[in-house]
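[step 3/7] fold_predict: job queued, chain A
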Amino acid sequence: MIDHFHFFFATGVFWTTLILSLVFAFGSTPQDKHLRNYNRAKYIMAFTYLLFTVFSVFIITGRLQELDLLSLKISILILFTFQLLLFTHVSLTLINYRYLSIRLLIYQLIPVIILCLLSILSNLLNWGEKIVIILFYSLLLFFVLTLLIVTRFFFIHYRKYRKRVDNYFSGVGTDHLRWIHVSYLFLLISSMAVIIISFTTLEIIIPFYILAILFYTGYAVHFLNYKNIFNIMRPVLREEDEKPIKSSQITFSQIEKAVEKWEQQKLFINPKITIAKVASHISTNKSYLSQYINNSKQKTFNEWINGLRIEEAKRLMTTNKNMTIEEVSEKVGYTDTSYFSKCFVKYTGITAYKWKNNNPM
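[step 4/7] structure written:
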């Protein structure tokens, strides 16, 4: 019965990854200069999914069961090393549209390819057990080092992406690529599980197939939908593509006075406020204003606006107890009450409801 379940879910993984690889390879391509690297990354995704399709074929045909335990572990390490590197480069491309280094990816894959070929030869030529053990530990060491390096690299880029977007937007638009962060965490957990399995008795279980189907399907859906939500990033990209505006007439002290006046007018309650709109209102440019906020206030634009909104929300709740949390949220510029609640807890340490009850008029 268990063997039938293995076969059933392995077949499900096969068809899932095969169909999605074909979608990536032959799907429509958006004609946008900013999405050029995204379109190239689609072919990397097609190759990534095709690798797992091939792995599924070996599971279905029983080829993997014919291998000894050490060779089986080597096969899985090779697969996950490929997956780790390929998914990392694709994810980096999504959070930084300028990033896609095919040459660097090839250089990183060369050691894996060499170890893969040596592993195949060891099985074909029946090399001694000592040589296979050396191959296993060499591959395991490379996998661990790769995991550490690409993880650090990814999170450096992700922090830069967050800062770049938080310095432009003030609302929930900053979370539109959070799925990449979540997916990458899942990939890291899976990679660590592979390392642990490498030191234990390996047993392929059904939950592995189910998680694989869910992960590959979920990532594909989000990846393909990326071109539809890309409009959120266009203002930021336009700003980065623009040549810096020279402004010899304005100083940080003048910006400070203009910003103070802007705050007093409570223009931060505009739900669609961006740094470009604020800069235009106080007669400066986005670059100068961003530098002022980052350096003088030690905050991103998003943090600064949310801080002002939360302070205004506290004032409204103190002076008008009849106003609901939803009304307060809308009054101070939030279109999403749940995001307001999240920000309120972040800035005050308690929920808006508790703060309102603890601070009577």
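[step 5/7] annotate
The chain is about 75% helix and 0% strand.
The chain has a mean pLDDT of 83.
exit 0
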